[in-house]
Amino acid sequence: xxxxxxxxxxxxxxxxxxxxxxxxxxxxxxxxxxxxxxxxxxxxxxxxxxxxxxxxxxxxxxxxxxxxxxxxxxxxxxxxxxxxxxxxxxxxxxxxxxxxxxxxxxxxxxxxxxxxxxxxxxxxxxxxxxxxxxxxxxxxxxxxxxxxxxxxxxxxxxxxxxxxxxxxxxxxxxxxxxxxxxxxxxxxxxxxxxxxxxx
Length: 199
Known about the structure:
Shape: elongated
Low-confidence stretches: 1-8
Number of domains: 2
Number of strands: 0
Order of helices and strands: HHHHHHHHH
Largest sheet: none
Strand content: under 5%
Mean pLDDT: 80
Helix content: 55-70%
């Protein structure tokens, strides 16, 4: 998982060499994030791991925060695209299970993104993308300002996932999905249907 499962980043323009450089930088960043906090990483360490020149980095990104934002943007979009449709097509508990299952499958990646020095940047990007999706989500709670619901729900979800990934005691994705659903999601979307008992 982590760097070795990183999907290729989207490259709107540029030749194959540019695409390879950007993907190598992204993979290097994710590999290094598994070893040390984001705030301790240097651009030289990232380029050395990527096998690219130091100057090459600056042809693609102004700083390491921009590289992290690019990587986080892709991963968050994938996570949201996997879970938001389920929220509309099924009950919110199924959406919670899908989200937690995906995070568990890519545990090293999400641990790197949600803990340590990178967490603030990832949190901001998560909220930004959730706000963009907000237009398509029904508002069962008329008293709750839409933007506040998005900020609270997204922030609380990130906090729960970060806590889970940092635990030495192992909680299953289904256990965390139950907590996520009952504590955060159901109160926001008005899903009062009982969830099945754990096996």
